[in-house]
Amino acid sequence: MALPVYKTDVIDKVFFLRWDAPPTPEEIQAVFQKMQNAYQQHQQPMILVSSAGAKAAVPNSEQRRHLSNMLSDARSMFSEIHVVIEGNELQHNLQRVIVSGMLIVTRTYDDQFIRVHKNADGAAGFIARRLGVDGNQVVNEARSRGVVL
């Protein structure tokens, strides 16, 4: 059996999710179940920090559809969503621009705070403001656990 292409962890009401490759529908369902379990444990919306590694392939249209559906189903569990697309190459910069553009277009009906970052450090200030904790410390702990780089 192959290892999952994702890692998750919860630190101070922040649900960290790392994708190392495009997921299968079963992996997406498993992640959604972990989100539900964490939400039930905390009984209030959390912050989602979802990252794609620099070496992760771009999901195909079916995988994107499943990921989009999961995000739609999970919105009520999160007060903020931070998408981290790691990497410095042109491909990664274009991915960030495309995702940011999609968010601008869809923001008219989106009441969630969704932001795109180059690395997890970009989310630290938002985590600090929302939760009243040291956001850098939360991100560094996530690094030590391998859920962000």
Please characterize this protein's 3D structure.
The protein is 47% helix and 21% strand. It has helices spanning 25-42, 61-74, 90-106, 121-131, 135-144, and strands at 6-11, 14-19, 46-52, 78-85, 113-117. It has a five-stranded mixed beta sheet, sandwiched between helices. The chain is α/β, with parallel strands linked by helices. Helix 1 packs parallel to helix 2 (61-74) and helix 4 crosses helix 5. The chain has five helices and five strands; from the N terminus they run E-E-H-E-H-E-H-E-H-H. Helix 1 (25-42) links the parallel strand 2 and strand 3. The longest helix is centred in the N-terminal third of the chain and has 18 residues, at 25-42.
Strand-helix topology:
Blueprint: E1 6-11, E2 14-19, H1 25-42, E3 46-52, H2 61-74, E4 78-85, H3 90-106, E5 113-117, H4 121-131, H5 135-144
Parallel strand pairs: 2-3, 3-4, 4-5
Antiparallel strand pairs: 1-2
Helix pairs in contact: 1-2, 4-5
